Description:
The protein is α/β, with parallel strands linked by helices. The chain has two domains: about 1-150 and about 325-335, Rossmann fold (3-Layer(aba) Sandwich), CATH 3.40.50; about 150-320, Rossmann fold (3-Layer(aba) Sandwich). The chain has helices spanning about 1-10, 25-35, 50-65, 75-85, 100, 105-115, 125-135, 165, 180-195, 210-220, 235-240, 255-265, 295-305, 310-320, 325-335, and strands at about 15-20, 40, 70, 90-95, 120-125, 140-145, 170-175, 200-205, 225-230, 245, 265-270, 285. The strands form three sheets. Strands 9-8-7-10-11-12 form a six-stranded parallel sheet, with helices on both faces. The protein is elongated, with a radius of gyration of 21 Å.
Amino acid sequence: MVLDLIEKIKECLDLKLFVIKKNFNSSYDLKAKELGIDIIYLNHRIKIFSLTVAIKLKKELDKYKPDIIHSHLKASTYIYFYNLFNKNFKWIHTIHTIAKVDTKIIRRMFFRNLYNKKRINLIAVSKNVEHSAKVFYKNADIRVINNGINLNKFKKRSANYSINNYGINIINVGRLEVVKNHDYLLIEISKLHKELRINKLYLIGDGKRKDHINELIKKIEMQDVIEIITYTSRVNEYLNMADIFVLSSIYEGMPLAVIEAMASGLIIIATSAAKDVIIDNYNGFIIDLKKDSLYIKLKQILEDISKYEYIRENALLTAKDYSINKMANEYLGVYLEE
């Protein structure tokens, strides 16, 4: 999201990107280099706050003298430290997930006063995130700017369903962590596979639970069906090979993977974590995280998937409201307003 934003506004502002951790030469680091961004890595190597990194960042910011600092995630802790010495900047912070996850109890104790006194301009990536933040910061100035995607990267998948011959392709995109709830996804789909043939289930992502998920795949005997793709820059191509996208997450901020799937014209089945984007039975389907809920919904759709073409069309229309250009223009407005 940060790189997409910078790409769109870099000609309008003098920008410098500070990354708390080191250069891992990941796809994101490489993209930053390709964009010609002035980027500084602070080489943070431990899980807890590093005074060394905080001092290094302060020195760099003292030299740069920014008018605006836009923080994300736990990097805000280091801006809090800088704010103790210098308050001559406009501070913007984006909350990317529900507030109780974005900022834990101890950090909330430090930030609550700054939020409520409007020292920090808070941006929530969805209405759901905004509501969660208002629980903790009742007087905070919070506005919603939805994350956006490059719609040109995604194209509508042709409705060439061939369930009887080859089975259906299902896809899930998300890091392999507890919050993404892959156990539920796999167990529900294994029930379905016993009745209606599934050709492929693509799991795109990596994370701490990869070994656990591989063991579960063996247990439910779906090694030939489920394919885990860890790091890839070809998510759009995998989406184009799929028929149905499933989001099984317990919670989300603004699930960009859902927007990308909608822009690809897939049928979406999601938990209430995507309720800011998905309207049940209009541009997708919302399910409860209960036993058999996903299995029943998938079976219902697969019995005659062609009759849900209207869901695909409405999803495509919805995706147009989540463009990277719209997001960039809204952020630029926040940066430039007095």
